[in-house]
């Protein structure tokens, strides 16, 4: 701790899932080394489900246009996209959960960008609409999200030995998105 922030990155197991939590606000060599070590670890690689949680998503599409372009906020998560995204793909991460953007998006892409086989995807989910002002203005388009919801929402994640179930609901409790990963 240096008086202005506390770096937090951690790994935990949740049943058959292994979860890595990163600090996207303060990139560091220490965190990059931690991430590489954890992604390569026997515990992570042998987990049935491999999850990474990070505040700033690698692919942001909605934000305040002025602060995005004029104040440089479009650069906030670049290191997640430029450095960590390739590691997520190479080390078979199943799900990357982030926030920051104040709405909901989910997209699934191939782990291997050169492959035409869509059977081994990595899922990126932005869960940022639990309260406060929502982001409605598109500032970029990565052409990877196939679900977008611009209202308040919450998500539940259930993990058992063979299945990861994701349910996103609006504030009335109606399902707005869901998916399963089955092993």
Automatic annotation (TrEMBL):
Signal as UniProt keyword: yes
Top-level taxon in the UniProt lineage: Eukaryota
A Pfam family assignment: Metallophos
Signal found in the keyword field: yes
Alphabetized UniProt keyword annotations: Signal
GO molecular function: acid phosphatase activity
InterPro entries the UniProt entry points to: Calcineurin-like_PHP, Metallo-depent_PP-like, PAPs-like
Residue intervals of the Calcineurin-like phosphoesterase domain: 14-104
SUPFAM superfamilies for the chain: Metallo-dependent phosphatases (SSF56300)
Name of the protein this chain belongs to: Calcineurin-like phosphoesterase domain-containing protein
Organism of origin: Coemansia aciculifera
Classification of source organism: Eukaryota, Fungi, Fungi incertae sedis, Zoopagomycota, Kickxellomycotina
């Amino acid at each position: 701790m240096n008086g202005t922030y506390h770096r937090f990155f951690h790994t935990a197991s949740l049943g058959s899932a292994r979860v890595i939590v990163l600090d996207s606000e303060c990139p560091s060599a220490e965190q990059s080394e931690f991430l590489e070590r954890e992604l390569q670890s026997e515990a992570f690689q042998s987990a049935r489900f491999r999850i990474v949680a990070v505040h700033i998503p690698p692919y942001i599409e909605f934000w305040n246009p002025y602060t995005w372009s004029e104040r440089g906020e479009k650069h906030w998560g670049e290191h997640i996209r430029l450095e960590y995204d390739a590691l997520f793909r190479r080390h078979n991460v199943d799900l990357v959960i982030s926030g920051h953007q104040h709405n909901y998006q989910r997209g699934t892409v191939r782990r291997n960008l050169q492959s035409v086989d869509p059977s081994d995807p990595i899922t990126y989910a932005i869960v940022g609409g639990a309260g406060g002002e929502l982001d409605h203005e598109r500032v970029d388009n990565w052409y990877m999200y196939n679900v977008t919801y611009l209202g308040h929402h919450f998500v539940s994640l259930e993990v058992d030995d063979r299945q990861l179930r994701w349910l996103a609901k609006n504030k009335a409790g109606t399902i707005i998105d869901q998916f399963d990963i089955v092993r």
